[in-house]
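@channel sequence for tomorrow's demo:
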Amino acid sequence: MQEVVRALTYIAPVLLAAIIVTLLLDRRGLFKRFRVDFVSPRRESVLGLFLLVLAIALWFLLKIGLSPVIEQIQSAEGPWPNYSLAHMTLQLFSSGVGLTPFVLALLIRRQGLLTIGLSRNNLISSAFLGVIMVFVTIASYILVYGNVLTIMGAFSTSGFYYLVAMLSVGFVEEAIFRGYLQLRLAAWLGSFRAWILTAIVFTVGHFRQSILGLVSVFCIGLVFGWTMLKSKNIIGLSIWHAFMDWVWILR
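structure tokens (generated this afternoon):
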């Protein structure tokens, strides 16, 4: 129970800060308004959900196929803080496999990066938001868990490998959920329903977590999705997402 309270004490201020920072940037006019349209939003949304199922299936097949390699790496290197180059390479490969169906869909359907939240539109303001939230996330972790030495130790070779791995995870998940899926659902169902539905799908995609973990993922998905509604750019979210994962493993 104590661990649950500490986790909530850590994450709640971070999410609240994200809402406040996003509101401030939006009120200052730093998030420019623009539309992302599709010829057939319904068809694009259904395709996005299908591609997500396909990506999850590919991840499972990859895990099964590479299980001897994964077990060998884990037994030889051990968990954090002994995260190795082999760990990082495996994660980068896994992230690439999951993103591949979406990349192929963009190429086949001749859709640009704008349709997954990657463009010059709001790029600087989105990145600024991401950097601010990185500092907020680290500060909240230190205040709640008090592991300053752990954070400092994470800025090592092993910590760098893990950070690069988490940057790939953050980018891929944001490109898929907030970029590809939410933008298409918004064009089909409207911003509000797309926001809620994307958060639900994001939570289902993390079904292996505990009930408390799923509730946390849903709340995080809501905040990520709401920020995406304002910025329509995934760069800042990808950076923040990566550091949230990076810090969480240090507990």
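heads up for whoever presents: The chain is about 80% helix and 0% strand.
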